[in-house]
Amino acid sequence: MPSTSEPIAADLFVRDDGAVRLVASRRTATGVVDFPALTGDQGAAGDVEQILLSPRGTLFTWTTQEFPPPSPPYAGAPGDFEPYAVGYVEFPEGILVEGRLTVNDPAQLVIGALMETVTIPFDLAGDPVRSVETFGFAPVDPAANEAGEA
Fold this sequence. Notes:
Oligomer: single chain
Order of helices and strands: EEEEEEEEEEH
Radius of gyration: 17 Å
Strand order of the largest sheet: 6-7-8-10-9
Strand content: over 45%
Number of helices: 1
């Protein structure tokens, strides 16, 4: 069992009052939003500000990964591979972000559906002590959303 869990990359996401929020940047001159966030040396001095994306967005499109990706980064045995879904989520800040989806069920993955940013484990091959997590997206239960839990 892993003894630690940390983000797969620094400044990729934060936990904010129980919600997972992606760390992005906005160019002050143009309003363009970038994810992952640009660093100071990637923009003109003073032209980039760090922002947090909303914890929820809408599913723009999605597909499934039906075969093992190349290794690296895929570290598992080909026989252990399980298909998974990936998609683009559109955030109110005006950006589409690609990520892994927590479900692979077409009944739950409807274009335009509300999605929530979550964390998911990411196994590091050959490191039984250290584990990392990355971000992903989960469908929001429509009943919970209608009950005012948006």
